[in-house]
Amino acid sequence: MENCSNNCHMRLIDPIKISYKNLMAAKFRSFLTILGIIIGVASVIIIMAIGRSAQALILDQVSGIGSNLIGILPGASDEKGPPAAAMGIKVTTLKYGDLEALRSGKEVPEIQDAAGYVMGSQTAKYKGEDLTVSFTGTTASYMDVENIEIAEGRFFNKTEEADVSKVAVVGKNIVRDLFLNEDPIGKTFQLKDHNFTVIGIFESKGSAGFGTASADDSVFIPLITAQRLMLGINHIAFIRAKVRSTDLIPYAIANTKATLRERHNIDDPADDDFSVRDQAQALEMIKNITNVLRYFLLAIGTISLVVGGVGIMNTMLIVVNQRIREVGLRRAIGAKTRDILVQFLMESAAISFFGGVLGIVLGILVSFIAALIMQSLGYAWPFLVSWQSIAAATLVSIAIGVVFGMYPARKASRVSPMESLRYE
Amino acid sequence: MEGFAQLLREARGPYFFSSFPSFLFSSFGGNDGPSLPQRGQYRPGPGLHPQSADMIFTSLPLRDKIFYKIIHIMSSLIQVQNLSKIYDNEGVKTTALSNADFRIEKGEFVSIMGPSGSGKSTLMQILGLLDKPSEGKYFFEGRDTTTFDDDTLANFRNKKIGFIFQAFNLLPRTSVYENVELPLLYDEEPENGKNKGKIMAALQAVDMEHRVNYFSNQLSGGEKQRVAIARALVNNPDVVFADEPTGNLDSKSGLRIMKILQDLNETGHTIILVTHETYTAEHAKRILYLKDGEIIADDPVKNRRFAHNGELLK
Question: Quick check: B193 and A336 CB within 8 A?
């Protein structure tokens, strides 16, 4: 290879041509060989694409809620990790009194308003229609805190909240599925044997909300009504507070913590039975959770790539045995051991690269179809395939070919020309 | 002995002396070690009658005789001394070749003949630099090949040796052109832009240029072997080894191959043919007979056979 003039490219092209010919000569076997790589690369691409899309979707919605919100969750938690409540553990330390204290504007002057939430699901009945709906119990301040608009009618007020009124604001899908597109305003429907009157309809948002169910699919009722009549509890699932301005968030968090510690008789911050997070932390947390999922799936994809590599090694070992006379001939006419090594390495790299390209195409195709399906289901699901993941998949597939082709190639290069020519 | 060595040192200078194989000098000393070929074993190149060469040689003064012998060894294409090959298969030792001593000059056409298991393939593999001897020396163009490393051997095979095999060994699913091109791809000193000319010239020599774009699997056996010969010739080697080249062919195609080999020899190529058939061997000018790993005879062919494009002339 020292004399790199016109022969270098020939030496490079020659093995590619040879491997292409050999791939084509045994199409089915070649297909099986590269199948492992195709599946591995495709799954890596799909996982990366779907993971990124899901992350983008969730983050987009979280940041859509508003950047000047802080969340107060029951139970202590690590700043970076998910709160206990997110793991499905019921913590009952947040009470209505806490919400009132935060809203009052005395203890935490930075907080403009706050809303408390409880969630559940129940069977809703209207004129013989049965529908399992998820409901959210919240305070009248909900409209102040969240970026939600009412399409028709109104949201419930403080009086209705305090009176444990049986009023409901419903989403577009509830109108469609429960009321069969009748105008529901003023109509009465049953939720767990209680008659609720519809007073408003949400503006369609078209996508799932974060923390609460999608407004489109949800029934909103006053917080105390939900606590007493629906769930039989007296704690709050979480509180969201709107801070007067973004730069006041650190003070709001500090004062909220102090207020709640005082109310809960906590001296040592390590004993906190609540956690306060701002939007940035929430985003960070969601990223952490989705990244863990992505890397887990990526590990599975990597395992299939390794299995694919073993498949290539196996096939290359067979190929070396089948073509031992060719190796002998090449050695006889002047091929050096490294020429043979390079030839077989390039061949396995070419097989693997070819599988990688097919895998990338398949991966992009599946991710695209997934995006189309998700979009048709009404989610703002972006189609995201990064150049980095394509470049990484290409490099990884070539690397797998080289790594798993090394042993067979070394075996081929060490065959003595005499013995291989004698081989029958 | 010392006197001759002194003579050589003065005549050629220290470089010549030190680069020269030491066996040359031991041969003047007596019976110990390998000796120069005896009279009668000596074979001049084509065109010079052995007897007349011997007469000239005996009439030379001693000093000229020495130089003549040195130049003669230098000019020998192949010289083997005491060559042995012992295979060690898990402790079981098999002697495939023992104490072979001969030389082959440029332009010769030599058959190595013997029954199967006689060691002729082993000998060809050693002469073709595909294998190394267990004992003895093998000089190719005056250079001791037993000291070569693998890369040098590969370069030698590429530049100086052409191979023709019984099973043709063409690459499958590959065109005639690409098959013939193969040795050029492994050439360490490629001549840019000359490959096509070389390939076409080699194909012309075997009358196969009309099949240049055919694939190897589209050819008949005889045609395959002709392509294999073209591949052996493309780097213009010093010697062509043909291992049972007609073994897989019908007699007509076989004769055509022999005709090509004879024509190549006429144009100055050195051919070494390995065969077990007396008939085929007799197309050469000289036959080395092997039996049980030993050379039992080394004779010129008295009634040489001539092949002519598929028909026997004689």
Answer: no
Shortest distance, CA B131 to any CA of chain A (angstroms): 7
Q: How confident is the model at residue A208 (pLDDT cuts 50, 70, 90)?
A: very low
Could you tell me the residue range of the domain that residue A243 belongs to? Answer: 92-272
Q: Which residue of B has its CA nearest to A325?
A: B169
For residues A312 and A244, state if they share a domain.
no
Using the 8-state DSSP alphabet, how is residue B290 labeled? E
- Indicate the residue among A241, A272, A303 that finishes a domain: A272
Instruction: Confirm or reject contact between B152 and chain A (CB < 8 A).
Output: no
Mean pLDDT calculated for residue range A319-323: 84
Between strands A238-243 and A194-202, the pairing is: unpaired
Residue A28 lies in a domain: yes
Query: A254 and A209: one domain?
Result: yes
Write out chain B residues lying below 8 Å of A330, CB-based: 182, 186
**Within this chain, do residues A160 and A248 fall inside the same structural domain, yes or no?**
yes
Indicate if ipTM > 0.85: no
Encoded tokens for B156? 């030698």
Q: Break chain A down into helix, strand, coil percent, rounded to 5.
A: 60, 15, 25
Q: Does B153 touch chain A (CB under 8 A)?
A: no
On whether any CB of chain A is under 8 Å from the CB of B149, the answer is: no
- Return per-residue pLDDT of chain B as tens, 314 residues: 444 444 444 444 333 433 344 344 433 333 333 344 444 444 444 444 445 556 666 777 888 777 776 666 666 889 999 999 998 888 888 888 998 999 999 999 999 999 988 988 889 989 999 888 999 999 998 889 989 998 999 999 999 999 999 888 898 888 999 999 989 988 888 787 888 999 999 999 888 989 999 998 999 999 999 999 999 999 889 899 999 999 888 988 899 899 999 999 998 899 999 999 999 999 999 999 999 999 999 999 988 998 875 454 44
Does residue A87 fall inside a structural domain?
no
Whether the pLDDT of residue A376 is over 60: the answer is yes
- In this complex, the residue of B151, B169, B189 whose CB is nearest that of residue A325 is B169
Rama region for A310: left / alpha / beta (φ>0; ψ in -120 to 50; rest): alpha
Residue A311 lies in a domain: yes
**Residue A117 is assigned to a structural domain of this protein:** yes
Measured CA to CA, the distance from residue B68 to residue B76 in angstroms comes to: 12
Both A319 and A209 in one domain: the answer is no
Tell if the CB–CB gap between A332 and B130 is shorter than 8 Å: yes
Domains of chain B, residue spans: 2-75, 78-312
A124 and A226 share a domain? yes
**Looking at the partner chain, which of A6, A325, A326 has a beta carbon nearest the beta carbon of B190?**
A6
Give the closest-approach CA distance of A410 to chain B in angstroms. 15
Q: What is the pLDDT of residue B102?
A: 92
Q: Was domain B78-312 assigned CATH 3.40.50.300?
A: yes
**Are A267 and A316 in a shared domain?**
no
**What is the number of domains present in chain A?**
2
pTM: 0.63
Chain B residues with CB under 8 Å of A7 CB are: 184-185, 187, 190
Cα(B117)–Cα(B121) distance, rounded to whole angstroms?
Answer: 8
Residues A377 and A406 in one domain: yes
pLDDT at residue number B3: 45
Q: What is the nearest CA distance from A28 to chain B, expressed in angstroms? A: 17
Q: Which helix (H) or strand (E) holds B107?
A: none
Q: Which residues contact A208 (CB under 8 A, 6 or more apart)?
A: A61, A214, A379
Contacts with A140 (C-beta within 8 Å, 6 or more apart), sequence order: A155, A156, A157, A158, A160, A161, A222
Chain B residues within 8 A of A22 when measuring between CB atoms: 173
Q: Are A242 and A105 in a shared domain? A: yes
Contacts of A336 in chain B (CB under 8 A): 150-151, 154, 186
Which of A3, A12, A331, A333 should be substituted to probe chain B, the one whose Cβ sees the most B Cβ atoms within 10 Å? Answer: A333
Sheet holding B92-104, edge to edge: B92-104, B78-89, B135-140, B143-144
Residue of chain B with shortest Cα separation from A20: B173
The angle at the Cα of A40, spanning A38 to A46, to the nearest 5 degrees, equals 95
Which residue of B154, B155, B169 is in closest CB contact with A329? B169
